[in-house]
Amino acid sequence: MKVRSERNAFYLQMGYQKNIWIAGLFLITLISCCSRKNIVKNPLLSDGNPIIMGDPFMYKYNNRYYLTGTYGSANEGFPCYISDDMIHWKFNGMLWQKNENSWASEAFWAPEVKFYNNKFYLTYSGLSKEKKELRIALAVSDNPEGPFKDLHAPWFDFGFGAIDGDIFVDGDQPYLYFSMNGFKDGYSFGIIYGVKLAKDLSAPVGDTVKLLEASQPWERVNWEHNRCNEGPFVFKYNDTYYMTYSGNHTFEQNYGIGYATASSPLGPWTKADENPIAAKDTIQHISGIGHNSLLPTKHENKKLIIYHTHENPKQPENQRRNANIGLIKIDKKGKLHFVPGVK
């Protein structure tokens, strides 16, 4: 009887351990499934629908993410989407909105928000009512979700069309990067310039400096009609300054992302030989990758990149673009690598 009892106890123990093992396996599977559900998926969604937005810009404050960009017909202003996880986005009203007294009438493009000296500053482009040309303006708010009020509108006037303003602060010295924008001899063009700013952001200090223009083979695919470098975004890694930028026309499939490096904020800047680092992918049915912004992560050599793609690669001219999030990785040689998603 004693042997039978010990045998029964043994089998009971084995069954108990088996049940624990099965339960543990189930728990691991459940956690894995839940983790996969929390992966950022592209395009970004709000209430189950893709966020239709060009020139997307994402910023973070107090562990909350904010998303804005060129919106709808680009005639009203800039939206604000908010998220706590970069996955579930909610429309939160307008960051900045045109009114009857606005300096510009339309073409409200490419907003960027910079937290500087305890205030939030919004740079954006618009079509000047007075000049009938594109100019850049600066608005300000005490809150990351706005509303923003014009501070300098237009911000400056160098006598030519200007879009895609990007503020970069090196130590305590701010700089502005932007694209000269225009049309001549049958082609549109964009040339990236930089200028030092007054520390209160009130005005440029010194002359503008030409930094980049269309020059590499991938930027010459439609040379007769478009010669464009635009959408600069500048950051510093170790002792090197990096600028991501976009080339070609935003409503053509070959719109893509390249980068350049420099040893000082105003250059000279040198384009990477491996450009473009992001381009159309016919297998993934992606085209028009471009006009990005970047955010740091907990890894110094990795940054979040938010960028737009064509909603319909077969009809890029319909001017509808999706917002997406990916990664930029910096390797040991200081080269940038684009990853289209976040895992």
What would you say this structure looks like, in words?
With 343 residues, the chain is mainly beta. It contains 1 helix and 22 strands. The strands form 4 sheets. Strands 11, 12, 13, 14, 15, 16, 17 and 18 form an 8-stranded mixed sheet that branches. It has a 6-stranded mixed sheet with strand order 2-1-6-5-4-3, with no helix packed on it. The longest helix has 36 residues, at 2-37. It is globular and about 45 Å long. The model is unreliable at 1-36 (pLDDT under 50).
SSE blueprint and pairings:
Layout: H1 2-37, E1 45-46, E2 49-50, E3 53-61, E4 64-71, E5 77-83, E6 88-97, E7 109-116, E8 119-127, E9 134-141, E10 149-152, E11 162-170, E12 173-184, E13 187-197, E14 204-213, E15 226-237, E16 240-247, E17 256-262, E18 270-271, E19 290-296, E20 302-310, E21 321-330, E22 336-339
Parallel strand pairs: 1-6, 13-15
Antiparallel strand pairs: 1-2, 3-4, 4-5, 5-6, 7-8, 8-9, 9-10, 11-12, 12-13, 13-14, 15-16, 16-17, 17-18, 19-20, 20-21, 21-22
